[in-house]
């Protein structure tokens, strides 16, 4: 794999520039920026400030919203580049934005997996949930950040080849450094097994066990309601995982093989590269879908949003009523003043 943005096979197949990627990336980032920014900012504010109960995977949700928000904040720079096709900023900033994209992807995968696993285990073993400490979730979250942050470091390093020659290129136009076939196989294996296969197995198992417990056990209505909530949350995590991350990881091994000149069929090469672009756009949608997990699947979050949203509305109504009352009093005073000018003696009697 050379340091140029495309291999010889790609050049022969006339896929040096997939021009549709610029408009597709720009449209996708514009579409998710405002909803992702507002939803994750509100989610982080509510989760950190107003939720006192730190069970039910709340700590993992906080970390998930932080991962999403970090990526969302880098989107304006991506939008600028894909519209103007020019990078006037520092090279390090380009690599940082590139790094945050994959950091968000794999951090989201692991935190969604932890949410599903914890909700399932706490439902099946409620006595263990009572003894579970908040610091355990904090330690697990810290370990995830360290592991994912370290594992994602090679990705921007591999894509920094184009920055050495052309400072105006970034993101999709970055080149690739030479790596051996063994290194490529090792990277793909680690990403697929650790970042996809293992989470898929865990989320599938949690979904099956949660659904099975709901069908088998005849609990009181309150317990059945709690099991349904847990099942909805696990299912929502599975939906986000399938929609956002499965297409990318199904295509990733073929993408790397194309970059390693394994294939020579032009139709297959074009299809693989095009699907890689589409799968990356789908992966970005998790920034908008993750807050759905918080709102619809966590009763505490929903209650706090409703409560504080109602307080804001009530405050606005009270402010409006006060303004109207002040305006009415002002009009009454003006009316009295005009009457005093017309009939001074009556005013004297009113004052007395």
UniProtKB/TrEMBL annotation:
Signal peptide: none
Coiled coil regions in record: none
Gene3D superfamilies listed in its UniProt record: Rhodopsin 7-helix transmembrane proteins
A cellular-component GO term for this protein: plasma membrane
PROSITE patterns: G_PROTEIN_RECEP_F1_2
GO MF annotation, one: G protein-coupled receptor activity
GO biological process: phospholipase C-activating G protein-coupled receptor signaling pathway; positive regulation of Rho protein signal transduction
Residue span, G-protein coupled receptors family 1 profile domain: 39-294
Subcellular localization(s) per the UniProt record: Cell membrane
Transmembrane segments: 24-47, 59-83, 103-124, 136-157, 185-208, 229-248, 268-296
InterPro entries tied to this protein: GPCR_Rhodpsn, GPCR_Rhodpsn_7TM
Keywords: Cell membrane, Disulfide bond, G-protein coupled receptor, Glycoprotein, Membrane, Receptor, Transducer, Transmembrane, Transmembrane helix
Membrane topology: Multi-pass membrane protein
Known role: Putative receptor for purines coupled to G-proteins.
Name the record gives this protein: Putative P2Y purinoceptor 10
């Amino acid at each position: 794999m050379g340091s140029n943005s495309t291999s010889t096979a790609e050049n022969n197949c006339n896929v040096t520039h997939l021009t549709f990627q610029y408009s597709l990336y720009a449209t996708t980032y514009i579409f998710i920026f405002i909803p992702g920014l507002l939803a994750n900012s509100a989610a982080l504010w509510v989760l950190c400030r107003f939720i006192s109960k730190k069970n039910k995977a709340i700590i993992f949700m906080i970390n998930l919203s932080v991962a999403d928000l970090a990526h969302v904040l880098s989107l304006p720079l991506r939008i600028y580049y894909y519209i103007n096709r020019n990078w006037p900023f520092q090279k390090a900033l380009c690599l940082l934005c590139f790094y945050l994209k994959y950091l968000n992807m794999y951090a989201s995968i692991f935190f969604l997996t932890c949410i599903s696993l914890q909700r399932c285990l706490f439902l099946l073993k409620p006595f263990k949930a009572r003894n579970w400490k908040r610091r355990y979730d904090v330690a697990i979250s810290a370990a995830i950040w360290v592991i994912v942050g370290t594992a994602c470091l090679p990705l921007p390093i591999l894509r920094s080849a184009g920055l050495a020659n052309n400072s105006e290129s970034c993101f999709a136009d970055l080149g690739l450094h030479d790596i051996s076939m063994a290194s490529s196989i090792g990277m793909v294996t680690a990403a697929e097994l650790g970042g996809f296969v293992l989470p898929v197995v865990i989320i599938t198992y949690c979904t099956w066990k949660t659904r099975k417990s709901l069908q088998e056990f005849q609990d009181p209505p309150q317990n059945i309601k709690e099991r349904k909530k847990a099942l909805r949350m696990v299912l929502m995590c599975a939906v986000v995982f399938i929609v956002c991350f499965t297409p990318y990881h199904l295509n990733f091994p073929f993408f790397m093989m194309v970059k390693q000149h394994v294939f020579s069929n032009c139709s297959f090469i074009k299809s693989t590269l095009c699907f890689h672009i589409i799968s990356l756009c789908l992966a970005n949608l998790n920034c908008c879908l993750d807050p759905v997990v918080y709102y619809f699947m966590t009763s505490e979050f929903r209650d706090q949003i409703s409560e504080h949203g109602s307080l804001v509305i009530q405050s606005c109504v009270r402010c409006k009523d006060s303004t109207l009352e002040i305006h009415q009093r002002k009009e009454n005073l003006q009316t009295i003043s005009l009457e005093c000018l017309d009939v001074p003696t009556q005013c004297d009697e009113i004052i007395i």
